[in-house]
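Proteins fold reproducibly. Consider a sample protein:
=====
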Amino acid sequence: MTAWTRDIDIRKRLEKKWNNGQLLAQCVSPGPFNPLRIPLKHPTAKELTHEFDAARTWIGHLMAHAGKQSFKKFTIEWQESNHRTLGRNQIPRAVIFHTLDQILHYLGKTVAAERYQSLFREITALHPELAELLIERPLDVLAHDTVWPSLLAIVSFIRQTPCPGIYLRQLEIPGVDTKFIETHKAWLTRLLIQVLPGSAVNEQARGASAFERRFGFLSKPARIRFRTLDPDFTIMGLSDMEIPEHDFCHLPIMPDTIFIVENDINGLAFPRFPRALVIFGLGYGLSALSNAHWMQDKPIWYWGDMDTHGFAMLDQIRHYFPQTRSFLMDYATLLSHRALWGRETSPATRDLPLLTPDEARVYDTLRHNLHAPMVRLEQEQISFSQVRSVVKAIQTNG
């Protein structure tokens, strides 16, 4: 079937405008509608000779879709063809939609467009500042059709009570619970940024997981797991604890040395060390330590997996505590355990400016696959006798 026998091109062009929100935005935008002309693929002179019946059917198809005079979906722009055999014929050259209503009717989107306009009026009556966002993302407006009352109730509450300093669970809004907010965090973030003053938005907190911090709610505090490594250096006789980060910032005892390891079992089995503690299991959550200002003048030793992410975490902790030194993350340790190398699934590749030259050499070896693809040496692969030996050397030499 030839390309000009259907109205596929017309529909595709219009659906593209619908899917990018352009048509809906025009429903509420000021200014006149400019008629939309869509050129048509039409039969050539040769095709008219050999497929005249198909061409006539195509023309009839277009005329039927154009609608009746009482409500035209579109008008047809004709051009005259003077064929030596067939004589003079009128061939459709383009279709023209003179109004937005014609396009919506043709696509079967009239009801959706009316609903969007209704929502636009209702929402902007309460929050005029949202008009730009609603025009920019009209399909999102429709996608949230059934939940707008709850969304607007949340926006109104936070607008009236910026940075409320409570947990989301404590919101007393009918029909709104924590799960609802979790489900709609991304869209709520867009709405709140439009209506709140800059002083009520923490721009340093980004992403759906930072919603609470961004808009002044309380969030579940990170918890820090640690062990004291000296039986004579405990907290009320307790040596193994997991406490909120705020409490960790105010420990009743001050260790002389701090070790940080990734793996939980390594933290539990870590060798004894005078007046020291070991922190473990934080992964990339090392920022939980950033407000423990008492750590700033303490010796800190970091031991992570010898893979690109282990070095990325080492670089991260140095943002907060530049004095941090690493152990068992050197080139000799990597090469001596070649038989135990595993593979990373998604290596880090960014530059890590806070690594020492020796650490950067190992990191570059890993991220550039200089020995093997995606090398990973996990902490568990290093013998515990070697761990004890290195920790003893740290105790002796500092």
